[in-house]
């Protein structure tokens, strides 16, 4: 029986270059044995999600999410609740492309990403469920997580990482901790924190070392709770991340593995960020769905422990170096007085 593939693509993702490569992508997939068709998402709510569900129920063997992390999230939400789920392919065309980074899928060339799918190697990936929504990379709560909402989508498209860095520099001094109640596999956290997040991969916000020991299919989230909101301490933590993931043992961090989480606010509203978008307010229950979706990946570059150090973009290398140098200068200055 002929295999069928449906490409669900966002025509406005990233710098809108995907459309130029679409014909060649179709040819690559046809040569790989798929009868392939394409669907362009519309501004209507849940456009990609609804089409993914329809295509899966129509018997398509492969659904490809072509766009940013938001498009991938929608497609996963379309197929994750189904008993019979097609395989998933990813062609990144967004700003950060965290999920593609974790799967070692080429992020600069949609054609090369299509070749990864045609190569036929897959990984059965964990995904997360947050109440009745699903996510593939992160869920987060707290004031720091609101950074994503504050960056307009057109800025993300034009400026990529720089949009997040500029907005982050603006918001960081205003971040304050809130009281949280977090129930996880081996304990409970009751106290103040500027944010928590649950990670499914090692790539968060374009950085590889926030979760240095992430596994893609072990049935566990990595739960990180950032207890401080002190500006200098926050900057030191970021420096530790950039210096090889040394933050995980810091006293201002709770770093544990868990298959589930219940997050409850205590005395003020707590918004939940799911794969970079607003996903509702706490209280919320999270569950890891082990090896739930089979996804095409560049498996030759993913070691058994599911972690590699990927060569960073040159501009990001420069940003990181300047940030670390700046924090060290602040740390050595006698004039810095920051209240905790």
TrEMBL record:
SMART domains attached to this UniProt entry: DAGKc (SM00046)
A cellular-component GO term for this protein: plasma membrane
Lineage top rank: taxon: Bacteria
Residue ranges of domain DAGKc in the record: 1-134
Designated name of the protein: Diacylglycerol kinase
Keywords attached to this entry: ATP-binding, Kinase, Lipid biosynthesis, Lipid metabolism, Magnesium, Metal-binding, Nucleotide-binding, Phospholipid biosynthesis, Phospholipid metabolism, Transferase
Cofactor: Mg(2+)
Single Gene Ontology BP annotation: phospholipid biosynthetic process
GO molecular function term, any single one: ATP binding
Record field: transmembrane: none
SUPFAM superfamilies associated with the record: NAD kinase/diacylglycerol kinase-like
PROSITE patterns: DAGK
Its EC number(s): 2.7.1.107
Family (UniProt): Belongs to the diacylglycerol/lipid kinase family.
Signal sequence interval, chain numbering: none
């Amino acid at each position: 029986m002929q295999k069928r593939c449906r490409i669900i693509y966002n025509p406005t993702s990233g710098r809108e270059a995907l459309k130029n490569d679409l014909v060649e992508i179709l040819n690559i997939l046809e040569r790989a044995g798929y009868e392939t068709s394409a669907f362009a998402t519309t501004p209507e709510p849940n456009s990609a999600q609804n089409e993914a569900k329809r295509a899966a129920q129509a018997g398509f063997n492969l659904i490809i999410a072509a766009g940013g992390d938001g498009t991938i999230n929608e497609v996963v939400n379309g197929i994750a609740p189904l008993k019979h789920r097609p395989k998933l392919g990813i062609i990144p065309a967004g700003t950060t492309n965290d999920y593609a980074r974790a799967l070692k899928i080429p992020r600069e060339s949609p054609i090369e990403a299509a070749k990864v799918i045609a190569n036929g190697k897959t990984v059965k990936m964990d995904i997360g469920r947050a109440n009745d929504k699903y996510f593939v990379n992160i869920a987060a709560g707290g004031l720091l997580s609101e950074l994503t909402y504050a960056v307009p989508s057109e800025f993300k498209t034009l400026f990529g990482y720089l949009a997040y860095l500029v907005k982050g520099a603006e918001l960081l001094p205003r971040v304050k901790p809130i009281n949280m109640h977090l129930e996880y596999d081996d304990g409970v956290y009751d106290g103040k924190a500027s944010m928590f997040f649950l990670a499914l991969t090692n790539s968060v916000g374009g950085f590889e070392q926030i979760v240095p020991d992430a596994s893609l299919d072990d049935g566990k989230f990595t739960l990180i709770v950032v207890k401080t909101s002190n500006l200098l301490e926050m900057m030191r933590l970021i420096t530790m991340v950039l210096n090889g993931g040394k933050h995980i043992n810091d006293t201002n961090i709770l770093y544990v593995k868990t298959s589930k989480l219940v997050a409850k606010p205590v005395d003020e509203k707590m918004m939940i960020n799911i794969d970079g978008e607003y996903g509702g307010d706490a209280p919320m229950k999270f569950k890891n769905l082990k090896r739930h979706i089979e996804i095409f990946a560049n498996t030759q570059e993913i070691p058994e422990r599911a972690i590699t150090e990927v060569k960073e973009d040159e501009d990001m290398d420069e940003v990181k170096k300047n940030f670390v140098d700046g924090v060290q200068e602040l740390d050595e200055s006698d004039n810095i007085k920051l209240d905790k």
